[in-house]
Amino acid sequence: MSKLNIYDLYRHVYPTTLLDNSKKIMEEGRIGKAMIGGVEKEYVRGMKMSEYTPWLKRTSNEEEPILGDYFTDYMNREDVRAVFNIPAEVQAWSQCTRKISYHELDECSMWIYPILRHQTRILKYSGDTDGAVPTAGTRDWIKMLDWPVLEDYRPWFTNGQVSGYIEEYDGMTFQTVKGVGHMAPQWARQPVQDMINAFIHNEPI
Fold first, then answer.
1. Is 54 helix (H, G, I), strand (E, B) or coil?
2. Is 111 helix (H, G, I), strand (E, B) or coil?
3. Who's near 102: CB < 8 A, 6+ residues apart?
4. Tens of pLDDT along 122-137?
5. Which regions of the chain carry the CATH code 3.40.50.11320?
6. Which stretches of the chain are DSSP H helices?
7. What is the CATH number of domain 112-200?
8. Which 3 state secondary structure label does DSSP give 40?
9. What is the CB neighbour count within 10 angstroms for residue 46?
10. Is 174 helix (H, G, I), strand (E, B) or coil?
11. 161-169/123-127 β-pairing
């Protein structure tokens, strides 16, 4: 799996970033600096997957690439922060932090669905080439809700082409998006737009 794009199994894995992969740069070049409100603030550039998902067990000892260093640089530009109305006194932004301590729950978010059922319409969608949050796992936990199936798994279409599959439960609509992963709206713009518009307006798709 170390050679695959875990978030989109059909997409390329880019081995380099704007940061040089030499050890010196990896260690020293990750500290970015930005002038914010006349004060220089430091932030960590980019992220490693072990930082983004520290709870996952690693199967490889290979050096991890730095991902998203350009994005942290962009988000810490003073003009970008101004557009987002981020006050100058707020710290510089990093993609990952050790300052927030998370703990795991056996039930995860399963408890919220029975509460929302029949109060709020729910759409759950999944890109079917997502290796991080795979469609098969999503289908498994939805089945654990044990809600009646109102409409069996069937294809849905965009311009005559299969865009994925849909299944209607008593309390939730589940749709897959074909050939894309975690960031389905980025790579399947028209199908995802059609899917969301149909759901919002309660129209058949």
1. coil
2. coil
3. 55
4. 999 999 999 889 999 9
5. 112-200
6. 23-28, 49-52, 69-75, 78-83, 112-116, 135-144, 184-187, 189-200
7. 3.40.50.11320
8. strand
9. 24
10. strand
11. unpaired
pLDDT of residue 95: 84
Residue 19's pLDDT band, with cuts at 50, 70 and 90, is low
Q: Please say whether the beta carbons of 178 and 156 come within 8 A.
A: no
The predicted pLDDT at position 1 comes to: 66
| Predicted TM-score of the model (pTM) | 0.73
Q: Note the pLDDT of residue 46.
A: 83
Query: What's the alpha-carbon Rg for the chain, to the nearest Å?
Result: 21
- Whose CA is closest to 21, among 65, 61, 51? 65
Q: Cβ neighbours of residue 95 under 8 Å, at least 6 residues apart?
A: 44, 46, 47, 51, 52, 68, 71, 72
